[in-house]
């Protein structure tokens, strides 16, 4: 069969890598793909904005593609699944209506409140409510800070600001409503209570009627070690998460994920694809921070290497509505992914810096390199801004995983490269 993967990041490279291991797949295409995917898939330099959906559909029809897998959230929120289904093509991912879970934080918060799904308390404001939002913050007691400011729409992982004090919170509101830092995504916002605990991510496969949980992962959002600095799209991840007991895991499913999926069905929303839950655990109780409508990045790079099953039939079953209540089989090994980012990220992104050392990494049998922000220039592989590479390894213990990953990273060199050295550090003492 022929499979098309849409997207160009580390998540999509990992999906291509996993799909390439399927015995049922003869040919993989990627739109637009990246340098790393070129060894596994035929990459086509095509736009994936909504204005190009018809061009992508024509390609699918010309090449007789059997399954299309959508990686990033923007095409999903813009309705690529609706376009494909209207022409009878098989595609993995939620439609426009279901993708509102990620496309609008206000929509999600209202759903959570309606169905009593645990999440931090929050209050909504529209752009015309700017003065009311500032007044709300000014009358908020000092003991209530930090607070979380969330732009309503998509913001590439940068629309959530943890404001440590009143001044930072007001500046974040100005970023949304006055400076238009997030464009239309900032026309509405939520001011939310800050919860202190540890975060985990859970990805669930969904076929429209059934929901099947995957292995837990932990993501690192802040740019600097010790969870300091600005939020990013994710600087690393690992799986499994040893801090989550079986009892907490069952609470995550019974209080957060299953009720949310039931709520979608009650709202006449047929959700097919991956439902991602970003959670925080406070005193052994889970709270929902966000839902995403696609595979997480970089959680996918830590989860899929542990999946012992062929991914393609699972994706097909989700698209067909025939997943049922399948139990997934997981490798007992640990997996760690550390992200290497460009100079200035996340506030700016250097591009065009030559990346050295990739050849030596590709010779390492126990290391996988997933490209994210790379391109070719004058015969060299260079940075293309943002997160550049994901360095991944599996091993019996987190300590061994970390040693392999960080030893591998020492071979990589480019101007201004930055990465966190504490990915899975806390887990290291637990296996």
Any key phrases for this structure?
4 domains, 8-stranded antiparallel beta sheet, globular, 29% strand, D-amino Acid Aminotransferase, Chain A, domain 1, alpha+beta, Rossmann fold
Question: How is this structure best described in words?
Answer:
By secondary structure, the chain is an alpha+beta fold. The protein has 4 domains: 2-96, 3-Layer(aba) Sandwich (Rossmann fold), CATH 3.40.50; 121-193, Dna Ligase, domain 1 (2-Layer Sandwich), CATH 3.30.1490.20; 198-320, ATP-grasp fold, B domain (D-amino Acid Aminotransferase, Chain A, domain 1), CATH 3.30.470.20; 335-428, Glycinamide Ribonucleotide Synthetase, Chain A, domain 4. Helices cover 29% and strands 29% of the residues. It has 14 helices and 22 strands. The strands form 5 sheets. Strands 16-15-10-11-14-17-22-19 form an 8-stranded antiparallel sheet, sandwiched between helices. A 5-stranded parallel sheet has the order 3-2-1-4-5, with helices on both faces. A hairpin with a 2-residue loop joins strand 15 and strand 16 (285-292). The longest helix is centred in the middle third of the chain and has 21 residues, at 246-266. The chain is globular, with a radius of gyration of 21 Å. The chain starts with a strand and ends with a helix. The model has no long low-confidence stretch (mean pLDDT 95).
Number of strands: 22
N→C terminal distance: 40 Å
CATH architecture of the largest domain: 2-Layer Sandwich
Q: How are the strands ordered across the major sheet?
A: 16-15-10-11-14-17-22-19
Q: Domains counted in the coordinates: how many?
A: 4
CATH fold description of the largest domain: D-amino Acid Aminotransferase, Chain A, domain 1
Structural class: alpha+beta
Major sheet attributes: 8 strands, antiparallel
């Amino acid at each position: 069969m022929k499979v098309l993967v849409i997207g160009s990041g580390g998540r999509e490279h990992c999906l291509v890598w996993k799909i390439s291991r399927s015995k049922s797949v003869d040919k993989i295409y990627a739109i637009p793909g990246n340098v790393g995917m070129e060894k596994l898939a035929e990459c086509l330099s095509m736009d994936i904005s909504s204005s190009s959906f018809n061009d992508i559909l024509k390609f699918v029809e010309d090449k007789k593609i059997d399954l299309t897998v959508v990686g990033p959230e923007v095409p999903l929120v813009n309705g690529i699944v609706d376009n494909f289904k209207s022409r009878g093509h098989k595609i993995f991912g939620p439609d426009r209506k279901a993708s509102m879970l990620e496309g609008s934080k206000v929509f999600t918060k209202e759903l959570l409140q309606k169905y009593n799904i645990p999440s931090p308390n929050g209050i909504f404001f529209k752009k015309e409510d700017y003065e009311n939002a500032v007044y709300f913050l000014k009358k908020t007691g000092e003991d209530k800070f930090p607070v979380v400011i969330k732009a309503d729409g998509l913001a590439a992982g940068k629309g959530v600001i943890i404001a440590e004090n009143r001044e930072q919170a007001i500046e974040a509101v100005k970023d949304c409503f006055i400076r238009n830092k997030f464009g239309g995504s900032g026309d509405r916002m939520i001011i939310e209570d800050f919860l202190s605990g540890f975060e985990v991510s859970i990805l669930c496969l969904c076929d429209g009627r059934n929901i099947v949980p995957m292995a837990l992962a932990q993501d690192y959002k802040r740019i600097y070690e010790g969870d300091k600095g600005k939020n990013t799209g994710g600087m690393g991840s690992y799986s499994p998460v040893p801090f989550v007991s079986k009892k907490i895991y069952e609470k995550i499913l019974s209080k957060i994920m299953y009720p949310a999926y039931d709520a979608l069905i009650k709202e006449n929303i047929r959700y097919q694809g991956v439902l991602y839950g970003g959670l925080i655990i406070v005193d052994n109780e889970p709270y929902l921070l966000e839902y995403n409508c696609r595979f997480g990045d970089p959680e996918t790079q830590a989860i899929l290497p542990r999946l012992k099953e062929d991914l393609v039939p699972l994706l097909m079953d989700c698209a067909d509505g025939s997943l049922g209540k399948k139990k997934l089989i997981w490798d007992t090994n640990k997996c760690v992914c550390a992200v290497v980012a460009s100079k200035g990220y996340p506030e700016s992104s250097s591009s065009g810096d030559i990346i050295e050392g990739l050849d030596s990494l590709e010779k390492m049998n126990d290391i996988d390199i997933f490209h994210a922000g790379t391109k070719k220039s004058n015969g060299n592989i260079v940075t293309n801004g943002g997160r550049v590479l994901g360095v991944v390894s599996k091993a019996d213990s987190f300590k061994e995983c970390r040693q392999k990953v960080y030893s591998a990273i020492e071979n990589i060199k480019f101007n201004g490269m930055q990465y966190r050295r504490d990915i899975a550090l806390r887990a290291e003492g637990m296996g």
